[in-house]
Write a structure and sequence with these properties.
Distance between the termini: 34 Å
Keywords: ATP-binding, Cell membrane, Membrane, Metal-binding, Nucleotide-binding, Translocase, Transmembrane, Transmembrane helix
Strand order of the largest sheet: 10-22-21-20-11-18-19
CATH topology of one domain: Rossmann fold
Shape: elongated
Catalytic activity: Zn(2+)(in) + ATP + H2O = Zn(2+)(out) + ADP + phosphate + H(+)
Helix content: 40-55%
Largest sheet: 7 strands, mixed
Enzyme class: translocase
Radius of gyration: 33 Å
Number of helices: 22
Strand content: 15-25%
Organism: Hymenobacter gelipurpurascens
CATH architecture of one domain: 3-Layer(aba) Sandwich
Subcellular location: Cell membrane; Membrane
Structural class: alpha+beta
Length: about 700
């Protein structure tokens, strides 16, 4: 039941402790505390809490607001009281009353009978009637509370006491089921809120102290014990350490972090005591930004959801008018007109017309889709993107970091005649330790401990060419072919035909061989392309800033339809605009700041590995928390399932209501059928929407 009498201020309603789904856009980052995990009272489904939204789009269901300020908390009874207490008492009184009526007990008549059923009615109905009255001053007259009040009070006025009680009682039970369904749908957000640490050990001035994470400053060092959550983003200063990242990424496998690598708030330290240098304040952690994004998602409604709420806003007063005509018109046309009979039909008509099944179950279905996606490590910035994901026919992807690992690794070592790998690698690796270039780092990592003890002197870095230096007394060159040309070192012509990035080496003025360095595809990249094509995507494109020969090779390896390399960000935007102009419904998938313009241009922008980039979180419509491109296909499956469930509910509600409305107008349907058409259909629709939470994707 909705409790319009609760005296809640706007400030109270805009706190994370309430997790009000239509108010979450008003949450500030410092309000995203673990206290928000407190079990919310009542339901507050997007599209069903009908206070005006914070944006410029008016909420079509403002008619459901139950307080002067338009906000409400849907609490059930007094603090600590079970929401089922008074409905249970009402049900007991109703059943006993029906039994007394059936056996025609003498004392149970007249005033006694009216008072008996009146108490049963008021236990569940007074808050609904109060809600109807409170909504009138704001002009929000035509809502479910007015319909229920008119129908049930009207039933009492013609002596149909049991039916009047039953309608209000079952309506209340329906509200309780809605509460349970929405609370279940909120669990994914509550689970995210719970992963924020509530206290942190800070090392200052040679001593440790336990503080609230909000009090920690940039540059502080925090200590994380085994089993503790990391409270703030930072750099690991004492490691290595293994971290459970499942709460952030949905991945069960732990990640090992080395000294100097970044760790994020919400990760759980698994093994040893570690220290972390704080690089982000509490409200600026990646986790806080993600929580804000997830909670804001429910404020952006899908087209279907907006249509239904606007339709209900028009539909409800029309049905009230029809109910009035159902009383008045027969008086002019029917010879044996009986006011009581036609009033009863009109009351049945009013009960059936209540749009609860639509305005609750449909947004609940979309919210269930957002929750299912969150559990899969996919964050959507609005339920509208579930619709867009389902409609796309073209997926355009960046290469490096999206389909490939974004990490260079040595693929091949090709020594020249007279050299072998055991001679070549220590010389080249030792020289490359003096460079910070990603390719140099890949070579050093590949060579490993073989560089230990090797002396490197007189190193000269030649911009755009490579390195020259003395390694163990030998003059070594390591870089591209331009470096060898510069120092007049001849090399085989076939070296120029190598597609991958290449490190060419010379020792004491003689060509010594080369190493190829490449960025390998991710383990699920080929699977991603295969699943997207099987899922109805008709065009898959790869756009990359890497050289075209490498881009084409990766595209061929993964089975991608079309690929273009050597592109600047503006070139990528040009290609995407061409596809959009041609009528394509397009998703662009990227992983970094350079892709932000194209992500914003696409119908739906998807950011890969969003935990690592603030820019992608800000720009993208969908953020995949892991680096797995196969999650794109998972998001599509969730979008299709959500769409299917939502439209099942729409057809169920419209179909049953149309049939029973016709029967009610004809005098065939009674209040009992009306209860099924309203509350029964609403419960069936809610249970159907509930299925999304249980689906495996």
């Amino acid at each position: 039941m909705l409790d319009p009498s609760l005296d809640k201020t706007n400030e109270e309603l805009n706190t994370a402790k309430q997790v009000q789904l239509d108010n979450v856009g008003a949450l500030t980052r410092d309000q995203l505390t673990p206290d928000a995990a407190t079990e919310p009272q009542g339901h507050d489904v997007p599209g069903h809490n009908h206070a005006p939204a914070a944006d410029t789009t008016p909420d079509p269901h403002a008619g459901h607001s139950h307080a002067a300020d338009g906000d409400h908390d849907h609490a059930h009874g007094e603090a600590g009281a079970s929401p089922y207490l008074w409905p249970g008492v009402s049900l007991a009184l109703l059943l006993v009353g029906i039994g007394l009526d059936y056996f025609d007990v003498p004392f149970f008549s007249g005033t006694v009978r009216l008072l008996w059923y009146g108490v049963a009615f008021l236990l569940v109905g007074w808050k609904v009637m109060k809600a109807a009255v409170l909504s009138i001053p704001s002009g929000n007259v035509f809502n479910e509370f007015l319909l229920m009040s008119l129908a049930t009070v009207g039933a009492f006025s013609i002596g149909e006491y049991p039916e009047g009680v039953a309608v209000m009682l079952f309506y209340t039970v329906g509200e309780l089921f809605q509460d349970a369904a929405v609370n279940r749908a909120k669990r994914s957000i509550r689970a995210l809120l719970e992963i924020q640490a509530t206290e942190v050990t800070v090392l200052r001035g040679g001593r440790s102290m336990v503080l609230d994470p909000k009090q920690v400053q940039l540059g502080d060092t925090i200590e994380v014990k085994p089993g503790e959550k990391v409270a703030l983003d930072g750099t690991l200063t004492v490691g290595p350490a293994s971290f459970n990242t499942a709460a952030l990424t949905g991945e069960s496998a732990p990640q090992t972090k080395q000294t100097g690598e970044g760790v994020l708030a919400g990760m759980i330290n698994q093994e040893s005591l570690v220290q972390v240098l704080v690089t982000a304040t509490y409200q600026d952690t990646k986790l806080a930004k993600i929580l804000a994004m997830v909670q804001d998602a429910v404020g952006r409604k899908a087209k279907t959801q907006l249509f239904i709420t606007r339709f209900a806003k028009v539909y409800t007063p029309i049905v009230v008018l029809l109910a009035a005509l159902l009383i008045a018109v027969p008086y002019l046309l029917v010879d044996d007109y009986v006011f009581r009979d036609w009033l009863y039909r009109a009351l049945v008509f009013l009960v059936i017309s209540c749009p609860c099944a639509l305005v609750v179950s449909i947004p609940l279905g979309y919210f269930g889709g957002i929750g299912a996606a969150s559990r899969a490590g996919i964050l959507l910035k609005g339920s509208n993107f579930l619709d867009v994901l389902r409609e796309i026919d073209t997926v355009v992807m960046d290469k490096t970091g999206t389909l490939t690992q974004g990490v260079f690794a040595v693929q091949q070592v090709q020594p020249a005649t007279g050299f072998d790998a055991t001679q070549l690698l220590p010389l080249v690796g030792a020289l490359e330790t003096k460079s910070t270039h990603p390719i140099a780092k890949a070579v050093v990592q590949h060579v490993g401990s073989a560089v230990t003890g090797v002396t490197v002197e007189n190193v000269e870095e030649i911009a755009g060419h490579g390195l020259r230096g003395r390694v163990d007394g030998k003059e070594v060159l390591a870089g591209n072919t331009k470096l060898l040309t510069k120092f007049s070192v001849p090399y085989p012509p076939e070296v120029d035909q190598v597609v991958d990035s290449i490190v060419v080496a010379a020792v004491d003025g003689k060509y010594a061989g080369y190493l190829t360095v490449a960025d390998a595809p991710k383990a699920d990249a080929e699977q991603t392309v295969r699943e997207l094509r099987a899922d109805g995507i008709t065009k898959i494109v790869m756009l990359s800033g890497d050289k075209d020969s490498i881009t084409q090779r990766v595209a061929q390896q993964l089975g991608i339809d079309e690929a273009h390399g050597g592109l600047l960000p503006e070139d990528k935007a040009r290609y995407v605009q061409e596809y959009l102009t041609a009528g394509r419904k397009l998703a662009f998938v990227g992983d970094g700041v350079n892709d932000a313009p194209v992500v914003a241009l696409a119908d739906v922008g998807i950011a890969m590995g969003g935990l690592g980039s603030d820019a992608t979180i800000e720009t993208a419509d969908v953020v995949i928390q892991t680096d797995h491109p196969s999650k794109i296909a998972t998001a599509r499956r969730i979008a299709r399932a959500t769409h299917s469930v939502v439209w099942q509910n729409i057809w169920l509600a419209f179909g049953v209501k149309a049939i029973v409305l016709a029967l009610g107008a004809g005098g065939v349907a009674t209040m009992w059928e009306a209860v099924f058409a309203d509350v029964g259909v609403a419960l069936l629709a809610i249970l159907n929407a509930w299925r999304i939470q249980r689906m495996k994707f």
